Amino acid sequence: MQSTETKEQALKALILKCADFSGYDEILIEPKTEKGIVNTLSDIFHSEKSWEIKNLGSYQAATNWFQGLCSACSVPYWNDEIENLGFDPETYFDDLGEIFTDMINGRL
């Protein structure tokens, strides 16, 4: 079992690693820095999930975004892949939503 800090850092690293903007023609220059990747993911998230953010909140919208196989960040989806990374499949998408929300709000 990972410590909370290690788990948070591992999920953050996973989100950054899995970011993929190849399907977004409006992104002319692929971001290379952590801040650039987070800002670009945040822009896409807010564009795609604005209704959910407004009505459900950022955390739930982010959780739903990852569960819906968002094309901007293709994180592992299958339980065996999630377990192989050392995460709990029961909380994985909630954890991703929490970490991503912290990232876009500058808390992580």
List keywords for this structure.
single chain, 108 residues, mainly alpha, 61% helix
Give a short account of the largest sheet.
none
- The overall average pLDDT, rounded, is 93
The helix/strand order is HHHHHH
The tally of beta strands, per DSSP, is 0
Helix content: 55-70%
Radius of gyration: 13 Å
Uncertain runs with pLDDT below 50, 5 residues or more? none
Structural class: mainly alpha
In terms of DSSP E residues, the strand content is: under 5%
Q: What's the helix and strand layout?
A:
Blueprint: H1 4-18, H2 34-48, H3 50-56, H4 58-67, H5 79-84, H6 92-104
Describe the structure.
This protein has helices at residues 4-18, 34-48, 50-56, 58-67, 79-84, 92-104. The mean pLDDT is 93. Helix 4 (58-67) crosses helix 6. It has one domain. With 108 residues, it is mainly α. The longest helix has 15 residues, at 4-18.
Short description:
61% of the residues lie in helices and 0% in strands.
